């Protein structure tokens, strides 16, 4: 796999340092925004494919990766202001934004707040309204099942990666050298010499509360060209579950979760009637990795229209 070697740098916004990657390129600016816990390095194979027509960057939000981790600022207004100031510091007057997962909130909030700064928007499996999902998750048959697992204390990065693959089989199935680089920026070594997530539990809690459980999408009045990808594939479950338990989860996901997800897609289309929607029936949440050619082709066509 070909991983690029972009410029890695920092910019000071809102009194903190944010990390970003710059792949260069000519033309208008395309900025990638990450999902929960991820860093700019997650786009290190996908993003540079656009440098023949665009200047391409990716931003790591506060509390993530190599960016500063302040105790506050994990609300839509502050995160949106971080992006605006990032653009200002790099003298970017207008850009297209492509956001994955959690970044859907930032995309909608930014375009509602600063519509004149946006050329086009791309939602990569990026819901901007998750308020109903906690209730749907309560119906997950695996939710209250405790599985026996040996306590893990990874003293090496390799051990941490092995644990991640074991606990997240849907990530393990698309693992490559890209993930080794990405994970190296998601973890740190604590005071006892154990590899742990770099993001603190308090930061994660604030983000879930502010952006997952309570955020209502801000009204968007501007008609900005919009492309949105949705994946309806069933995520692979850990082998720690029995075959019966995994079958039960698959039925829940297909008959309950995906039906609700389809309602969210319809709701998004109602709010953005001009948007192009691409549904990937057997897609992966990291669709720009697992279904790279499909996503790349649709994005490129949309951006060059």
CATH superfamily of the domain at 7-132 and 201-239 and 258-304: Alpha/Beta hydrolase fold, catalytic domain
Distance between the termini: 29 Å
Largest sheet: 8 strands, mixed
Rg calculated over all Cα atoms:
19 Å
Shape: globular
Helix-strand topology string: EEEEHEHEHHHHEEHEHEHH
| Helix content percent band | 25-40%
Question: Class of the domain at 7-132 and 201-239 and 258-304 in CATH?
Answer: Alpha Beta
CATH architecture tag of the domain at 7-132 and 201-239 and 258-304: 3-Layer(aba) Sandwich
What this model shows, in words?
The chain is of the alpha/beta class. The protein has a domain at about 5-130 and about 200-240 and about 260-305: Rossmann fold (3-Layer(aba) Sandwich), CATH 3.40.50. Helix content is about 35%, strand content about 20%. It is built from ten helices and ten strands. It has helices spanning about 75-90, 105-115, 135, 155-165, 170, 175-185, 200-215, 245-270, 285-290, 290-305; strands at about 5-15, 15-25, 30-35, 55-60, 95-100, 120-125, 185-190, 195, 225-230, 275-280. The protein has an eight-stranded mixed sheet with strand order 1-2-4-3-5-6-9-10, with helices on both faces. β9, α8 and β10 form a beta-alpha-beta unit. α1 (about 75-90) crosses α2 (about 105-115). The longest helix has 29 residues, at about 245-270. It starts with 6 loop residues before the first strand and ends with a helix. The mean pLDDT is about 95.
């Amino acid at each position: 796999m070909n991983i690029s070697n972009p410029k890695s740098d920092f910019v000071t916004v809102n009194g903190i340092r944010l990390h970003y990657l710059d792949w260069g390129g000519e033309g208008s600016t395309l900025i990638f925004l990450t999902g929960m816990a991820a860093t700019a390095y997650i786009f290190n194979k996908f993003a540079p494919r656009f440098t023949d027509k665009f200047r391409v960057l990716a931003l790591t939000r506060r509390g993530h990766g190599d960016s500063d981790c302040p105790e506050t600022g994990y609300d839509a207004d502050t995160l949106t202001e971080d992006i605006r100031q990032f653009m200002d510091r790099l003298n970017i007057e207008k850009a297209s934004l492509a956001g994955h997962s959690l970044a859907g909130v930032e995309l909608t909030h930014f375009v509602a707040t600063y519509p004149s700064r946006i050329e086009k928007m791309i939602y990569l499996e990026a819901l901007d309204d998750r308020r109903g999902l906690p209730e749907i998750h309560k119906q997950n048959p695996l939710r209250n099942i405790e599985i026996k697992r040996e306590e893990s204390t990874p003293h090496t990065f390799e051990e941490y990666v092995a644990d991640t693959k074991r606990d997240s089989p849907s990530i393990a199935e698309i693992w490559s050298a890209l993930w080794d680089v990405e994970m190296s920026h998601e973890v740190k070594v604590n005071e006892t010499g154990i590899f742990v997530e770099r993001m603190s539990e308090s930061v994660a809690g604030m983000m879930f509360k502010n952006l997952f459980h309570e955020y209502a999408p801000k009204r968007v009045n501007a008609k900005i060209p919009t492309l949105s990808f949705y994946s309806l594939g069933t995520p692979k479950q850990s082998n720690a579950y029995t075959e019966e338990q995994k079958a039960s989860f698959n039925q829940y996901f297909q008959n309950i979760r995906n039906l609700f997800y389809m309602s969210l897609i319809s709701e998004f289309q109602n709010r953005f009637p001009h948007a192009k929607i691409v549904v990937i029936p057997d897609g992966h949440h990291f669709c720009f990795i697992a279904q790279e050619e499909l996503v790349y082709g649709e994005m490129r066509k949309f951006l060059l229209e």
